[in-house]
Amino acid sequence: MSSADTQSPSVRRGSRGTLPRRASASFPSPRVRPVSMGKLAYQQLPPDQTTPEGPGAHPFWHPERALFRYLVLLVACLFSIGSYFAYDSIGVVQQELMDDFGITEEQFALLYTIYSLPNIVLPFFGGYMLDRIGIPIGTLISCTLVALGSMIVAVSAFDAHFWLMLVGRFLFGMGAEVSYVAQNAICCLWFKNRELALSMGLVVSAGRLGSFFTFNANAFIVNHYGDYRAALWLGAVLASTAFVGAVLYFFMHKLAARVSPALLQSPVDPGSISMRDVRYFPLVYWVVVFIVMVFYSTIFPFQSTATSYIQKKYLMPNDKAAFIVSLLPLSALFLSPIFGFIVDRVALRGVFVSIGLLALIPGFGMLMFSSWPQPYVSMVLIGLVFSCVPAALWPSLPILIPEENIGLAFGILSGVINAGLSLFYWIQGRINNPVYEILLYVMLVLAGFVCSVWWNMMDYAKGGQVNRLQPTVHTIQEVQETDS
């Protein structure tokens, strides 16, 4: 599987993937850049400085109106709905696919590993690409790979060409992860100073909607029509909606740049952005990256094999087990925007992350040690955490990093996530024992919880910026002096 959350005349973002700074402030050279600690991202500007949205200010279709902003968000959600459906589709038909291809469970795990392997490095360059060439072109390239890769996966099932399916998953993964980086960059571009956590929560919900549909639709297709290939083709068709969304966003972005140039005006020259800017990222950013990696390396490998595990332990048919597993993304589907709304109002981002990670332990424990309660309870609890933690984690990143490097920062994060997924999918295939696998998940969660406590302690020592509604802005020099 993954990841995961405005502008005014005085606070604008460029059309080439860069984020805004205060227009009235003076800034040092590119070698000494300020790190946004969230004040810019979360502080509501006075009414006389905000983009006019009252009656008669602009036509309803104008890029500076809220309606246009949310239409952009709706289009961005298309990037993940279809791709999440296609990503999880092979997990629902795991047994049928293994029988038809004549492969082992370890070989089947390669289909997830080959997805994650290129994305250990690729999102790093993909995020840099978004900062340099811009979000519109970057999304077109990535979403084209999503559609092409999913089509190849579906075609490979006709004659059981396992090598061809691996190629399709490889291309699919190359595009999907960069498109998720683009989603986060779009949220930061259009919803800064407004509903950043809510917008990221809605993007997360879109992905969970795709996962929910794949667990139910594919199980229905297999059980009633007896052909898993139709399920893979459905995933390929839905994955193509990512390309449609990329085309729509390209024209919406260009319209905004033409109608309201100041809205997307870049405060820095994209040519000055360099990959070496990572040296300005503070220590706390890398701690958060590790927490995110641990979280997703727990959730997604568990979700990929949960259907088979529940079938065997609770003696359930495939469709019922798949429905229970679908409660995980279904819970996140409805709860992610709610948690995002709460985070926008009360902050406490680090606190929410620690509480969520701690709550995962009883969720996994009930599945591993007891047949009671039924797995419904565990899945809803894990789904609750699946909603809470990303809603608090993802909006924390714009507080920690230089604003013009948002694509690079999210790209690094995506690469680290996929490094963890590649490793733990492989470990999962080697273990091939559900009880030991869940025990591994619990150990990962404990490591993430300890790091989240450390994160909160470091944040408290620096004034509690991440857990504030209106954190203060620090320069990179101040961050470096504090970390040292």
Q: What is the N-to-C order of secondary-structure elements (H for helix, E for strand)?
A: EHHHHHHHHHHHHHHHHEH
The strand order across the widest sheet is: 1-2
Overall radius of gyration = 22 Å
- Structural classification: mainly alpha
Work out the number of β strands.
2
Q: Please give the alpha-carbon distance between the first and last residues.
A: 36 Å
- Report the β-strand fraction as a percent range: under 5%
Average pLDDT over all residues: 77
Task: Give me the number of helical elements.
Answer: 17
Helix content: over 70%
Largest sheet: 2 strands, antiparallel
**Low-pLDDT segments:** 1-56, 473-480
Shape: globular
Q: Main attributes?
A:
globular; disordered N terminus; 2 strands; mainly alpha; 484 residues
Outline the structure in words.
This protein is an all-alpha fold. 71% of the residues lie in helices and 1% in strands. It contains 17 helices and two strands. It has helices at 39-42, 66-92, 94-101, 105-116, 122-133, 135-156, 162-191, 196-225, 228-259, 283-314, 318-346, 349-369, 375-393, 397-400, 406-431, 434-461, 476-483; strands at 34-35, 474-475. It has a two-stranded antiparallel sheet. The longest helix is centred in the middle third of the chain and has 32 residues, at 228-259. The chain is globular.
Write a short abstract of this structure.
The chain has helices at about 40, 65-90, 95-100, 105-115, 120-135, 135-155, 160-190, 195-225, 230-260, 285-315, 320-345, 350-370, 375-395, 395-400, 405-430, 435-460, 475-484, and strands spanning about 35, 475. It has about 475 residues and is mostly helical.
